[in-house]
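Dear Dr. H.,

I hope your travels went smoothly. While you were away I took the liberty of generating a structure for the chain from your last submission, since the lab meeting agenda had it listed for discussion. I wanted you to have the full record in hand beforehand rather than looking at slides cold. The sequence, exactly as received, is reproduced here:
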Amino acid sequence: MHLLRLLAIALLVTMTLAAPSRALTLLRDPDIEYALRKLAEPVLKAAGLSPSGTDILVIDDRNLNAFVVDRNHIFIHSGLLLKMDNPAMLQAVLAHEAAHISNGHLVRRPINLRNARTAAGIGAALAAAAAVAAGSGEAAAGAALGAQTTAQRLFFAHTRAEENAADQSGMRYMANAGIDPQGMVEVMDIFRGQEALSAARQDPYARTHPMSADRFRVVNRLAQAYAEKTRDNQSADYWFARAKGKLSAFQRSPKWTLRRAGETGFRDVRLIREAVAHHRRSNLSRALKSIDAAIASRPKDPFLYELKGQILIESRRFGAAASAYGRATQLAPRNALILGAYGRALLAQGKVGQATKYLEQARARDGRDSRVMRDLAQAYAKQGNRGMASLLTAERYAMQGRMEDAGLHGQRASDLLPRGSTGWRRAQDVLSAAQRAAKQRKRR
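The corresponding predicted structure, in token form, is as follows:
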């Protein structure tokens, strides 16, 4: 994976919210990410963006927010996803963020960066993001550091002119894709009045996407003008129900989930939600009964086998988990999250060689998963390869913003790995990032 793409994720994993000690965390679930990709596909095509080259990633945060940092990622907070009532609302958010990319709003980020650094000493994290936005620089993986909230707002904030342009472009994308434009109006309605609140009570989306009465009226008029282009889309209804249903099952209480499991009208979504709820209650037999029923209804769905594997591995049924993940891998051999999970189950079984194979495949396809780095480090350590174990540990710490620890393990890897090898060069990247971070701390 190109280091600049990896860096954009590292930035967001380590970026702080209201308190410097609270870091953002990505929620990586192959089923939810696939569902979001299906929902985003028509919008991205209408925006002239590549659906396969634009990832929709979920951040574990109850605030209502969504944003972009480069041309390849759209981030949505779990709180905003759960707040959406229908697929058109979620697609409106995605269309709006896609418009920021297509309209070239990211090119102003280096200017915003300078203002943010002056205001709050933001340092290397946003400097690295500016390199991403500009498409330049030999940035090292994991160079991102935590950022103060004030600086974060300055960096990500859009002007009212950008917001108006993104609204109009987003509405056009939705119309061209046959998506109900009323979804944009409903999203806007959620945030009406937010600007009258104190900054502490505002949702981040309102702070970084300034609202106005005029803006709402323009969107309302556009929705009326585009209404006749709307087409029914049962596929969107299904994938929205699946993404929101599974996410809520993991984030809401099991009691809440079981009361509402069948509200979407899709039987397999109900069974998924029930399986998660029973699993979270440590009722393995009922969880397996539900997920097996879902698999029976969709026997070629890799994500159902992946969920079964998760239930089993978290219940310490490693052999059965590996079997479920193995079937998921057969059905989705290119999905990095599934490959990583299969490697994790094999490692738990003691099948270190096989585990290393699948974990390396996962890392090669998606270098953003710190769990894969952790598992790979363990696998290499078990095989006596201390150099690679140290390298993976260093890269994982860098991704988490723990640059002192990253530098320590990066130096160890550099000393152990053959000079000039690929692993040795990766260690140099981490060491360079750690040195820049150390210089930045001294300036403060």
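Two observations you may find useful: Residues 3-229 form one domain. Residues 422-443 form the longest helix (22 residues).

With kind regards,
E. W.
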